[in-house]
Write a structure and sequence with these properties.
This protein is of the alpha/beta class. Helix 2 crosses helix 3, helix 6 crosses helix 15 and helix 15 packs across helix 16. The chain contains 18 helices and 27 strands. A seven-stranded mixed β-sheet has the order 12-25-26-27-23-24-13. Helix content is about 35%, strand content about 25%. The chain binds zinc ion. The site of zinc ion has 7 residues, from loops.
């Protein structure tokens, strides 16, 4: 190998490593550093190496990150290992009995009677990720068969799809239980014919008393012919709402009375409570255990991943599975997930929105995915927290702070930084004898993302700034402060309307030496008026730097010394939603 080629290889090696480490963009400084650390004999050729390195770094930066990784892996795989040594990404524990099945199939089955919230994340992400882990299928099934007490609404079908897409949980097929009523009827009829179910027309109280005593009601022992007669009457509208219920037979002595002869279908007056899609086409509607039990079998669900509040449902459904000679899917019943301080009750969410207490389903006080999205909580943070907790059966509590910590870790490197001055007050600085221009990178660790500049041109040696009244109220006459990245000044006079100061010195070292506070600023008359909607729905007003005008809606940024925000609207002024500090 010639000397020149050898040097090129060396540069390429470290440039690739640096690029892979920094999201595809290598920086020349650290590359040279690594080369000279490895080969101190090359120090005398530093100039030549720098020149050549500039060319090679440019070539490498033109490649995509995955091309860079491939190349690095091909030529110097040992350098990729360093990446892998970092704290292991937590992964889900394996599913049980995977080998029993040709293909793993999971499902998420929401009732579209409300929007989804962070409490649903576990069912969605675990079901989806397990399906992906085993290259199986993930099914979205709308369980919309209760037009009365858990009435589905059209808008929620779509918002659920939106939320799943946002969470990066793509589903392979979609079902709506309300279009499968003839299927449930068919299986119900079989149960009735086989003496495995009956239609009870008893008064509810009377039935309850009997079942608590493990005694059959008179309907239970009627012949299958009589059951079918009742079934036809039920479908034909002879019975009214509340007058007949199909019950699946179980052991009447089952220790849990809630399991005994569970209800499978009932009548709903859809003239009064029309279904949003089917109107009043049907009046006999399946209940959860019948519909979901049949569907899980017919859809080939191999693993049901759901909360442990469903444990009793498994016991109920197993009776039906035995009657049909089906084998029950594997089940994972995870523990409850509490989110401290979050409203996770659908009825409370809906009521709050309907009554106007919340501005909508994306009100920042809610823990709905819509609200989290609007505030700049990213789906990757939610996924991390869910994978971290995994499918364990014990209850877990997460706090907003936990979620914020995960989110912050992601946003810290992805969000550019800007100046934002809250409840601004005018600061007048005298004795500035020359103009100043300061250029600040959008992110100190990712200089390749670009910069923004501020120019301060004094008139009569005086310039004015917007500064935050929160900062200023801490300052007294005679105190030295530093306008971040600009210069140091001495406070002369503070009042509620404005602050007067004199230029003190330029270097940061000076400010550091005396421990002067650093504050944000915006040249007076510049900047864009901004409103930040806080998590408690209050609004903080301020001025953001001019560069923020260029940000498109949906961009998540960091207002320095304030917090992460998501740009919500760019109109005559800017509206942002606060994520967290
Ligand atoms: Zn009865």
């Amino acid at each position: 190998m010639s000397k020149a080629t050898e040097l090129d290889q060396l540069i390429q090696k470290y440039a690739l490593q640096n690029a892979v480490k920094h999201n595809g963009k290598a920086e020349i400084g650290p590359v040279i550093g690594k080369i000279l650390a490895e080969r101190s004999d090359l120090k005398s050729q530093a100039k030549e190496i720098t020149k050549r390195a500039a060319e090679i770094v440019k070539e490498i930066n033109a490649l995509s990150l995955s091309e860079q990784k491939n190349l690095l892996n091909k030529k110097w795989p040992e350098l990729l290992v360093e990446e892998k040594v970092r704290p292991e990404e937590k992964v889900l524990p394996p599913l049980l009995n995977v080998k029993k099945y040709k293909e793993i199939v999971t499902r998420f089955s929401p009732n579209p009677d409300c929007v989804l919230h962070v409490g649903n994340a576990r069912a969605i992400i675990l079901s989806h990720d397990y399906a992906r882990m085993y290259k199986g299928k993930f099914i979205l099934r709308f369980e919309d068969t209760d037009p009365k007490t858990k009435k589905p609404m059209l808008e929620f079908y779509e918002s659920i799809r939106e939320d799943l897409s946002w969470l990066e949980c793509k589903w392979d097929s979609e079902f709506r239980q309300s279009e499968r009523l003839p299927i449930y009827y068919e299986y119900s009829k079989k149960l009735l014919q086989n003496n495995q179910a009956y239609i009870c027309t008893c008064n509810r109280e009377k039935f309850r008393k009997l079942i608590m005593d493990s005694k059959p009601c008179p309907c239970r022992n009627l012949s299958p012919e009589e059951q079918l007669d009742r079934w036809n009457k039920m479908l034909g509208g002879t019975y009214l709402e509340g007058e007949a219920v199909v019950r699946v037979k179980t052991d009447l002595n089952h220790p849990n009375p809630a399991v005994r002869d569970w209800p499978a279908l009932r009548i709903i007056n859809t003239k009064l409570y029309p279904h949003p899609i089917l109107g009043s086409k049907y009046s006999v509607w399946p209940l959860y255990n019948l519909a979901s039990g049949i569907d899980d079998h017919l859809m080939g669900i191999t693993h049901i991943i759901r909360g442990k509040e469903h444990l009793t449902n498994e016991v109920r459904q197993r009776y039906m599975y035995t009657y049909f000679n089906w084998s029950y899917p594997e089940t994972i019943h995870y523990g409850r997930l509490k989110v401290t301080g979050a409203i996770l009750s659908k009825s409370k969410i809906r009521l709050g929105v309907d009554e106007g207490f919340f501005t909508g389903y994306d009100d920042p006080r809610l823990a709905t995915f819509k609200a989290l999205r609007r505030r700049g909580i990213v789906p990757q943070a939610i996924r991390k927290i869910i994978i971290e907790i995994g499918p364990k059966t014990t209850d877990s509590i997460i706090s907003w702070e936990n979620l914020y910590a995960y989110n912050r870790k992601i946003l810290d490197s992805t969000s550019n930084r800007y100046f934002f001055v809250t409840t601004p007050i005018k600061l007048i600085v005298e004795k500035i004898y020359k103009p100043y221009k300061t250029t600040i990178p959008l992110h100190p660790d990712y200089k390749q993302r670009g910069n923004r500049s501020f120019t301060v041109k004094p008139t009569n040696n005086t310039a004015a700034f917007h500064v935050s009244s929160n900062d200023i109220k801490l300052f007294k006459k005679g105190k030295i402060i530093r306008l971040m990245e600009l210069f140091n000044l001495k406070i002369n006079k503070v009042d509620t309307q404005e602050v007067k100061a004199t230029f003190h010195s330029e270097p940061y070292s000076e400010a550091k030496k005396i421990g002067a506070p650093l504050i944000h600023w915006i040249p007076f008359g510049e900047g864009v008026k901004a409103e930040v909607v806080m998590p408690n729905a209050s609004i903080i007003e301020g001025i953001a730097e001019d560069e923020c005008r260029k940000l498109s809606e949906g961009t998540i940024i960091q207002f320095e010394r304030f917090g992460f925000v998501r740009i919500d609207q760019q109109k005559e002024y800017l509206t942002a939603y606060f994520a967290h500090i």
